[in-house]
Amino acid sequence: MSRIVLGIEYDGTLFSGWQFQNEQRTVQDELEKALSRIADEKVSVHCAGRTDSGVHALEQVIHFDTEVNRTLDSWVMGGNTNLPSDVRIIWAKQAIDDFHARYSAIARYYRYVILNRKMKSALLRNQVTWCYNTLNEVNMHNAAQAMIGEHDFSSFRAQGCQSVSPRRLIHFINVYREDDTVIIELSANAFLHHMVRNIAGVLMDIGMEKQPVIWVEELLNIKDRTQASVTAAPYGLYLGGVFYPEKYGIIKHPVFNLLAPDVQRFEH
Questions:
Q1: What amino acid positions are annotated as catalytic residues?
Q2: What does the domain layout of the chain look like in residue ranges?
Q3: What is the pTM of this model?
Q4: Average pLDDT for residues 163-180, to the nearest whole number?
Q5: CATH entry 1.10.760.10 includes domain 107-239
Q6: Side-chain-side CA neighbours of residue 124 (13 Å)
C-alpha cells in the first residue's frame, strides 16, 4: 500500500462544496471517480480542509492510499484527462513518513477577493465578491490585527459549526488594495466553519465605516455570533495553500514566509 499526495486547483462555482453529498456535484466525488479510473479500483481521498459551495482552491492538498503501481505523472495526466475542466491536479508526490493531508497540516492560507467599484464584473462574477460602497482598506487592516494570535472566535463561527473548540491561532492577516480590488489574506492553524467569510463580513462593514476599527476586538470579547455582520458571499474566497512541516517535503507557498517565527515549533 502506498500513499499518494496531490495538489489540486478548482473553480468552486458549480460545486456544492468539497465533501461528497448524494445527488450533488462535489469536488471530492469528481476526484474519486477520476482517480478510480486510473487505479482501476475504488479510491477514497482525504483533503487538508473542506470548502463550501462556491469556494475556490488555488492549492488544496489531498492524499489517498492505493495498492496499484502508477507513476506520479500518470496520476497527474491521467487524472486530469478524466476530470471536468473546473478541477485540475497540479502536482503529485509520494507521501513521506506518516503524512496525512489534514492532520499533518500546521497552517492554512486563505484569500478573500473583493471587487470594490460601482459596477459588477461580467468576467469575474463568480471569482470575486462585489462591494458597491468604497472600502477603507487601511481601517480594515488595522482592525484585523486584533485577531492575530490565539483567540476564541465564537463571534466568527457559523451557528451550526461542529468544532469542539472555538479557539484558533491566526498567524497573520493582511488587508490591502490593488486598484479596484481589496484583498484579505490570512493564515491560521485551522479555521472554523464560515470563519473566513464571517471575518470578511465584519471587515467590510468596518471598511464601509458602518463600524469602528475597535469593533473586531469588541466582537472577540463578546463571543456572540449574532452580534457580528452577515456572512460574506463565497465567490471571492480561495483556499490558497497548506503549510506542512519540512520533513514531509511539501513545497510551501511563498506567503507562508509571513508566518510568525514561533510557528516552527509546531513542525515537530
A1: 52
A2: 2-104, 107-239
A3: 0.93
A4: 95
A5: no
A6: 16
